């Protein structure tokens, strides 16, 4: 007990006597100090006294699927900074090999009486129902939900017929593909491929749907021109190899990591980027201006999206009713050195991999 008092007191910058008064529910402590002590107790992993467990901490869970993809640390930094400015303590939860799953993190956060949760990336039906059933404020950040795949009980309030769900903040996938497609089309490319994440990943599905519409509108044959892969360098390299073998001269990728894998795939086939193949990424992760060649990509408005997500969450924490609407933020096409005019139909170098098989 003495050690706990000392650690909490040091964390908050108050005396052990003040911590003791808070934990025993005694008067003589300001609301600000009382809340700071309770937050420190939660952060340090101590259990609150029984009489205080019903008091919700000013902790906010931030659940991200991974940290290897640079976009997720960027989102975590943006959301975390905005939360701290408003007096909340962000708790970062990320899936690691052999560690907790996202569903287990959700359970842990709910048991800790968090004030709310910002959920990035994918969201399963079970996780959606778990969060909805507990009534905790939630905002989905780039975690679009396929409502058609959800059970009716999770979509509609049976008493009032109202739509259930969480506020969502996302990058406009359709606008992203339209910008990228228009860019390479203007450069003369007619054999355009799309490389995105797994087929069940909603943002990837949206990109594929937008790509199909653009191909139909322009009369472009899209058969064999859509590749799906895990969001990794190796996944991008493997899937890009198939698209290049099908004759694509331009690749629109669903992440910068996939795009870098596509660059490697092109070079392994003896193709130059961008003289033979143009490649566009997505995210504008750190250092994309320093790759070889510098990567043309679609920049997600991370700061604006993070602020919007936090504001929607705080509105719920303050008693506002959640509105299951999606705020779409338009990305920005950043043109660098990985895109160029399409090569002449007869001037494209032979694919070394094909030559080796002859």
Structure in words:
This protein is of the alpha/beta class and 358 residues long. Helices cover 41% and strands 15% of the residues. The strands form two sheets. It has a six-stranded parallel β-sheet, with helices on both faces. A six-stranded mixed β-sheet has the order 7-6-8-9-10-12, sandwiched between helices. Strand 1, helix 4 and strand 2 form a beta-alpha-beta unit. Helix 1 crosses helix 2, helix 7 packs across helix 8 and helix 9 packs across helix 10.
List the keywords.
single chain; 358 residues; alpha/beta; six-stranded parallel sheet; six-stranded mixed sheet; 12 helices; 12 strands; 15% strand; disordered C terminus
Helix and strand element order: HHHEHEHEHEEHEHEHEHEEHEEH
SSE class: alpha/beta
Shape designation: elongated
**Helicity level, as a percent range?**
40-55%
Count of DSSP E strands?
12
Ends apart, CA distance between termini: 76 Å
Radius of gyration: 24 Å
Strand fraction band? 15-25%
With strands numbered from the N-terminus, the spatial order across the biggest sheet is: 2-1-3-4-5-11
Number of helices: 12
Average pLDDT value? Answer: 84
Characterize the main sheet.
6 strands, parallel
Low-pLDDT residue intervals, each spanning 5 or more residues: 157-162, 349-358
Q: Characterize the quaternary organization of these chains.
A: single chain
């Amino acid at each position: 007990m003495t050690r706990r008092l000392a650690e909490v007191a040091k964390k908050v910058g108050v005396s052990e006597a003040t911590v003791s008064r808070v934990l025993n529910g005694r008067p003589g402590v300001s609301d600000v100090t009382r809340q700071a002590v309770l937050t420190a107790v939660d952060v340090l992993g101590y259990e609150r006294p029984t009489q205080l467990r019903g008091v919700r901490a000013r902790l906010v869970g931030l659940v991200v699927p991974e940290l290897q993809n640079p976009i997720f640390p960027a989102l975590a930094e943006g959301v975390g900074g905005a939360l701290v400015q408003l007096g909340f303590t962000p708790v970062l939860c990320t899936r690691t090999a052999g560690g907790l799953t996202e569903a287990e993190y959700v359970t842990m956060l709910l048991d800790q009486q968090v004030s709310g949760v910002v959920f990035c990336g994918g969201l399963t039906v079970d996780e959606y129902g778990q969060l909805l059933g507990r009534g905790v404020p939630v905002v989905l950040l780039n975690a679009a939900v396929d409502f058609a795949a959800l059970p009716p009980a999770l979509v509609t309030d049976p008493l009032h017929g109202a739509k259930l769900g969480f506020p969502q903040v996302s990058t406009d996938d359709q606008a992203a593909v339209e910008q990228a497609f228009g860019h390479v089309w203007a450069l003369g490319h007619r054999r355009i491929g799309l490389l995105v994440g797994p087929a069940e990943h909603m943002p990837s599905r949206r990109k594929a749907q937008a790509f199909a519409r653009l191909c139909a509108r322009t009369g472009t044959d899209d058969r064999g021109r859509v590749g799906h892969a895990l969001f990794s360098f190796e996944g991008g390299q493997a899937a890009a190899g198939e698209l290049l073998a099908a004759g694509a001269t331009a690749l629109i990728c669903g992440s910068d990591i996939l795009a870098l894998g596509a660059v490697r795939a092109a070079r392994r086939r003896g193709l130059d980027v961008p003289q033979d193949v143009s490649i566009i990424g997505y995210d504008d992760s750190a250092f994309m201006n320093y790759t070889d060649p510098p990567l043309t990509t679609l920049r997600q408005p991370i700061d604006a999206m993070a602020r919007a997500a936090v504001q929607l969450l705080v509105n719920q924490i303050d008693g506002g009713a959640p509105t299951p609407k999606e705020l779409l933020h338009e990305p920005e096409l950043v043109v660098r050195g990985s895109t160029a005019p399409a090569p002449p139909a007869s001037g494209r170098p032979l694919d070394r991999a094909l030559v080796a098989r002859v």
